[in-house]
Structures are given as C-alpha cells and as structure tokens.
Amino acid sequence: MDSLSAVSEELAEIDGQIADIFRALSNGFQKLDKIKDVNRQSRQLEELTGKMRECKRLIKEFDREVKAMERRTNANTHRMLSEKKQSMVKELNSYVALKKRYQSNLESNKRVDLFDGPNEGFSEDNDMLASNMTNQQLMDKGYQMMGETDQAINRAKKVVQETVDVGTETAATLKAQTEQMSRIVNDLDSIHFSIQKASKLVKEIGRQVATDKCIMALLFLIVTGIIAIIIVKIVNPNNKEIRDIPGLAPPAMNRRLLWIPY
C-alpha cells in the first residue's frame, strides 16, 4: 500500500478497495460453510457474486490507471504494478473457482430436495423420532403420508388427462387441416382440367374461324370475278370472249324464214 501511495494515490485507493473486497469474500465463504439452509446459501452466494463483479470492475480500473501511467514510470515500477495486477487477478480467480464449486454443490442439494419432497432429512432424525412416537402417532403419520401420496397421484392423473386432451385436440386439428388440404388439391386438379378443356375449345374455335375465313375469301373472289365480267360486258358488249357466257351473251337477232314458192 505504501509503495503504491508513492506511485499514485488513485492506485493506492483502488488497491485498498480491492483488499477490502477480498477480506469480505474470505469471510463470506467461511460463513457459507456454516449455513445449512439451501435458500440462505443461495442468497449468500448471490451476495458474494456481486462482490466479485465489483472486484473485477476495480481491477480493470486499476489496469487502466497503470497503462495511463506507463510513460511516466520507470521499468521497475511498471513491472511492480503489473505483478500487483496479476496477483489481484489470480486471487479473484481463486474465489470464482470456489464460488463455482459451492454453486455446483448447491444445485446438487436442490435436486436432492426436489426428489426427496416431504421426506427431507427423514433418514436418521425421523428414525429417532419414530422410536419416541406412540402407536397412534405412528398411525396418524402414516395416514398423513398416504394422503399426501394420494394427492400427488391425483395431481399426476390430472396432468396426464390434460396432456391427453391436448393431444386429442391437436390430432383433430391436424385431421381437419389434412382434409382441407385434400379438398384444395382436388379443386386445383379440377381447375387444371377445366383450363385444359378450355384451351382445346379455343383451338377448335380458332381452326373453325380460319376455315370460315377461307370460305369467305373464296366466295369474295367468285363474286368479284362475276362483277368484273358484268362490268366488262356492259362496257364492251361485242367482246367475243364473254359472248357465250349464259346470261351475258347479247340477244340473238330475229331470223326470218325465207319462203320459196315452188
């Protein structure tokens, strides 16, 4: 502490705070060994964990101060500060490992308590207590334990029934969704078939329209030819090329029969 005070008052103050936390951690873990109640042990561990977090924060602050003073201190002083920080980190890590061990033991005890249920600590103490009980007290205790067992069984049955109900509802929902999907697939197949049928019908209509257009074009050409012939005949009635066409040839001249008397 004195050597740090000679280097920096801030570092000396941080070092003092960290030392106080280390003493509190040491005393806290010693008290933890004497606590038998699981809940109190858990609270004590939470309190010690908070102190370790605070100690970690102070060590980081100590390291920042050391780095800020690196250019203003000589090599020996800087090495001494680095070793001091490493010593703090090592001591904090030892408490962290100790906390993990206690935490593991605490979790194991909680699991034992969970499975033991109302028979917690029954083995030796309760055997001694049972030896001091009267027959009526033993019977009452047995009836009480049977009642607790029946209640536990009823609760388990209720949970099982609720699980079965949920499973039944889920199965019904899945069945309804499966049927709905089947209907959708059938509808899609019907739509696809209708589209194919409509496509074929459109093609047939297209072919029929094309045939009708050809016939109309042929009739148009015939009518156009007839009209052209009529126009030519009107313009040039003596045209020999169209004289013999029925209905278009010029009228025949009246021929007189010569009567030759004998």
Summarize the structure.
Pfam families: Sec20 (PF03908). One of its GO terms (molecular function) is SNAP receptor activity. This protein is mainly α and 262 residues long.
Could you explain the architecture of this structure?
This protein is mainly α and 262 residues long. The protein has a domain at 2-118: Methane Monooxygenase Hydroxylase, Chain G, domain 1 (Up-down Bundle), CATH 1.20.58. Helix content is 81%, strand content 0%. It has six helices and no strands. It has helices spanning 2-7, 9-34, 38-68, 75-116, 125-131, 135-235. It is elongated, with a radius of gyration of 57 Å. The model is unreliable at 112-129 (pLDDT under 50). It comes from Gossypium raimondii (Peruvian cotton). This is t-SNARE coiled-coil homology domain-containing protein. Residues 143-205 form the T-SNARE coiled-coil homology domain.
Tell me the CATH architecture of the domain at 2-118. Up-down Bundle
Q: Alpha-carbon distance between the termini?
A: 183 Å
Strands, total number: 0
Q: Average pLDDT value? A: 77
- Quickly name the level 1 CATH class of the domain at 2-118: Mainly Alpha
Radius of gyration, Cα only, in angstroms? Answer: 57 Å
- Quickly give the structural class: mainly alpha
CATH fold assignment of the domain at 2-118? Methane Monooxygenase Hydroxylase, Chain G, domain 1
Separate helix tally: 6
Name the shape in a single word: elongated
Strand content: under 5%
* Low-pLDDT stretches: 112-129
Largest sheet: none
Please write the string of helix (H) and strand (E) elements. HHHHHH
Q: Name the helicity range.
A: over 70%
InterPro entries: NPSN/SNAP25-like_N_SNARE, Sec20_C, T_SNARE_dom
Membrane topology: Single-pass type IV membrane protein
Transmembrane segments: 215-235
Coiled coil: 38-72
